[in-house]
Amino acid sequence: MVKSERVMKFPVPDWKRLFSKEFDKITTCFCYQYDIDESFYGPYGFDSSIAKNIINDFISDFVFYDVVERKLTNVDNVYRNGLYISSDGNSLGNEIEIYSMAVKKNELRKGRGLNEIEVEKKPILLSVDSECKIPNEVIVHLINDDIPFFIVNDYMPEAGKSIMIFSEEMVKRFLDVVRKYNVDICAIDNIDLMKSW
Which domain of life is it from (predicted)? Predict the structure, then answer.
């Protein structure tokens, strides 16, 4: 095992909520701690070189939903809080692009005094308007459509940047990557039991 680094698994904290408690039973949270001393003190975050490799392997086919730009963007880390979605075989990005183009065309038509054209239904991801709150209907849609996703949130002074995963298959995938790098995995019953940093 890699000394002084570990992944910690913990239940969804009750504070700084991004989504409804109804999803807590299916959600698993993970954080990373490194430079750990004999008293289990050490910084949190996916910042060590091993942690960065784990994240790069895990998110290789994921994109980040940028709530400001209103689009899916490629990423190679989890530095930003919010929603990360598999880019493998889903049409969410295209739906947003087509909808946004239609809205812009209507703005131009309206400015020229022309009739607006009918716009397709607003894509579900556009209901996410804050990195701090993911609407229930978005989570339900992603789960029902079998679209792999996870959410990143920052919990300080315990846990730091944390990944919240909503399916056992994704949890297994994440832990397989962690094991590939020979990093210790431990489970904590409550975020309050972690050492503050």
Answer: Bacteria
